[in-house]
Amino acid sequence: MNRTILLIEDKSSLSETLKTLLELHQFKVILAGNGEDGIKLARQKLPDLVISDVYMPVVNGYELLESFKNDSTLSNIPVIMLTAKTEIEEINLAMRKGAAGYVTKPFLFKNLHATIKKVLV
């Protein structure tokens, strides 16, 4: 596939594991540890997709979605939220703010991969 994914996750063990799994599926992966760094990297690299945690330091996932929506350079890049928050209010909020998908932790990689494929069609 050779598409580029920006993975924004503050837990390095999870981001490294996900990076390895995504690379096995032919994705190029860029890592960021918080939303602020993620926004900067998105502007520099213009990835095909962003996967972001919701609750992380500096800029959270909801603020990241707002930034993407309000930035003409980033507004067409889909963002999948990957979070432990399973409440329907959280899911609805993310979708209202422009998330292209929402995957809850813990998750099966095949479910995340299916969401990625659906978003990147």
UniProtKB/TrEMBL annotation:
BP terms from Gene Ontology: phosphorelay signal transduction system
InterPro entries on file: Bact_response_regulator, CheY-like_superfamily, Sig_transdc_resp-reg_receiver
Q: One matching Pfam family, short form?
A: Response_reg
Give the source species.
Answer: Chitinophaga niabensis
Q: Where does the source fall among the domains of life?
A: Bacteria
* Domain Response regulatory: from-to ranges: 4-120
Q: What is this protein called?
A: Response regulator receiver domain-containing protein
Keyword Glycoprotein annotated: no
Q: Which UniProt keywords apply?
A: Phosphoprotein
Q: Which residues carry this modification: 4-aspartylphosphate?
A: 53
